[in-house]
Amino acid sequence: MKQGDLVVRKSYGGDVLFRIAGLNDAMALLRGTDYRLLADSRIDDLEPVRNPDELGGTRRARIQAHQSVRRMQEERAHFGSAYASAKGPNRRTYFEMPGKVLHLDGDVHYLRKSMAVYYQLQVPAVGAHCHESQMPSVLAQLLPQVRPDIVVITGHDGVLKHREDWAQLGSYKNSANFVKAVHVARDYEKHFDSMIVVAGACQSHFEALIQAGSNFASAPGRIMIHALDPVYVAVRCALTPFREPIDIADVVAGTISGQQGVGGVETMGRYRIGVPNLQTAIPSGANVM
Q: How far apart are CA 240 and CA 195, in angstroms?
């Protein structure tokens, strides 16, 4: 086996598909391909996977991902048109300003998938890949450059083996790094409605992330969350009008992992409209220099 190979853990019944992120003697560092889970395993407990689509769990996760993206597309059409209808009958007279997202991800494959979804939904987003331990310093550099409305801090996490005290940050692989990054975000912008923070990954310390200043975080039930769950939350924040509170219960219900995977606090949306729409306001035949 080598770095980059797809594997499952035999002792767990092959429940989650992983990619080998590193090898060290008889141990392997694993990153989930569909879930934001970081784990380690003995190499002799790993089984190679040549066709991921044959795994029931992988098929189910990808079906859920497709449904999540479709739900976001439907909500994208609904939120914009509903808000505009309240402001005026002619959709052509306005332009949209969804909230701008800064997305930090510890997994480059997930970052690419996430950015593709933002692009597809026309949500402005800037993405950065870095190791979870580097996120506080990277965020400190990017925040004044990007000036986002919404910050996503995610990657891989997990409860360490033989650590059953969920109250301790030391029981988690990356929750402490996420908490430090949230503190950096809140040092930059303290107001919860001026900049929304979405933080965490699989099994992350939900309470610590909320106390640090996250608006939304994972994982209340210390369960695995799907790779697109943070994206879904960010999109809903970006497309909810700035005068309206984000429906927390509805957002959580729309995630793949549900209320055991994601929670949050009361927050206002970041979507605005403006007039005029320059594409229709400029007279036909006019020259714009």
A: 14
Handedness of CA 228, 234, 239, 244 (dihedral sign): positive
* One domain, residues 147 and 171: yes
| Residues 267, 245: Cα–Cα separation, whole Å | 6
- Per-residue model confidence (pLDDT) at position 12: 82
Which residue, 259, 201, 257, is CA-closest to 65? Answer: 257
CATH of the domain at 150: 3.40.50.2300
Spatial separation of the C-alpha atoms in residues 227 and 224, rounded to whole Å: 9
Sign of CA dihedral 138, 197, 204, 14: negative
Q: Give the residue-averaged pLDDT of 4-25.
A: 85
At residue 254, the pLDDT reads 87
Q: Given this model, what pLDDT does residue 48 score?
A: 87
CA distance 139 to 214: 14
What average pLDDT does range 255-264 have in this prediction? Answer: 93
Q: What is the pTM of this model?
A: 0.85
Q: What is the mean pLDDT of residues 78-95?
A: 61
Quick check: is 285 in a domain?
A: no
Instruction: Identify the burial level of 278 via C-beta atoms within 10 angstroms of its C-beta, where 0-12 means exposed, 13-18 middle and 19 or more buried.
Output: exposed
